[in-house]
Amino acid sequence: MKCPYCGNEMTSGVVQSARQIFFTTKAHKNWFTPDIAGSEEIILSSHNWTRPTCSAYHCPDCKKVIVDYETAQQ
Ligand SMILES: [Zn+2]
């Protein structure tokens, strides 16, 4: 994947966490399970019960990581 900022080829990899990874427009103060029904949250990770993992691309020059959640478990 080409970096949308500089156009250089990005490094393919993963973002991992001990817990499910999600995007939300409102940060939560305490841990909770994403409310998919509320549709404010988008699950980014797959393998959420074993090793939450997101497919991602990294540009070291721009210090950007792009997450691809096409295969995430919604
Ligand atoms: Zn870049």
Entry summary:
0% of the residues lie in helices and 32% in strands. It has 74 residues and is an all-beta fold.
Q: Layout of SSEs?
A:
Elements: E1 11-16, E2 22-24, E3 41-43, E4 53-59, E5 64-68
Antiparallel strand pairs: 1-4, 2-3, 4-5
Q: How would you describe this structure to a colleague?
A:
The protein has 74 residues and is mainly beta. It has one domain. 0% of the residues lie in helices and 32% in strands. The protein is built from no helices and 5 strands. The strands form 2 sheets. It has a 3-stranded antiparallel beta sheet, with no helix packed on it. A two-stranded antiparallel ribbon has the order 2-3. The protein starts with 10 loop residues before the first strand and ends in a 6-residue tail after the last strand. The mean pLDDT is 87. Zinc ion binds at residues 3, 5-6, 8, 59, 61-62, 64.
Which structural traits does this protein have?
74 residues, 32% strand, mainly beta, two-stranded antiparallel sheet, binds zinc ion, 5 strands
Taking all Cα atoms into account, the compactness measure Rg is 14 Å
Largest sheet: 3 strands, antiparallel
Q: What string gives the helices and strands in order?
A: EEEEE
Structural domain tally: 1
